[in-house]
């Protein structure tokens, strides 16, 4: 059976794969704003807390900007983890989707760790540059995965029930 657009599970995979692309892109825009507004240490050197608190004070713009970058990770993680789970549980024969959705998850996980090191190293320039580089790699992975998911429309793949 081919995974067509009207197949409900394929619709779900589409939503998660394309959602990963859009949310990762937005997160990168927020990250750029963190850097250009000098808000990188808005939450201090603490992670995952923000200056030791779970929620930031709304009176401090730098803190709000840095915190929104961190919290938006949850949206990206929702889509990226959802895509990988769907690929592993329902689309195992679609090897490219399994490969790229898993790589996206691993890349995002590494990026969260690197984000932590970015703040705990007080924005060490090398670490910040690596954070920007890995962000580009993660975006590339989720885009390639979305293209693979798009291609499933025309490639006959037996999916698991
Ligand atoms: C909880 C995890 C994360 C933390 C704590 C974090 C933290 C930070 C910090 C502190 C900066 C500012 C660096 C500076 O001003 O030099 C930053 C920038 C940035 N972050 Fe994150 N980040 C996280 C996750 C991510 C993820 C998952 C992505 C993308 C996939 C991402 C993409 C970016 C980008 C593109 C920048 C701008 C870099 C630049 O323009 O030089 N971050 N992040």
Quaternary structure of the protein:
single chain
Question: Uncertain segments of ≥5 residues (pLDDT<50)?
Answer: none
The structure class reads: mainly alpha
Number of helices: 4
Number of domains: 1
**What is the helical fraction, as a range of percent?**
55-70%
Folded structure, characterized:
This protein is mostly helical. It has one domain (8-151). Helices cover 70% and strands 0% of the residues. It has four helices and no strands. The site of protoporphyrin IX containing FE has 27 residues, from helix 1, helix 2, helix 3 and helix 4.
Features:
4 helices; single chain; mainly alpha; binds protoporphyrin IX containing FE; 161 residues
Task: Write a brief caption for the model.
By secondary structure, the chain is mostly helical.
Layout of secondary structure:
Blueprint: H1 8-36, H2 61-90, H3 95-120, H4 125-151
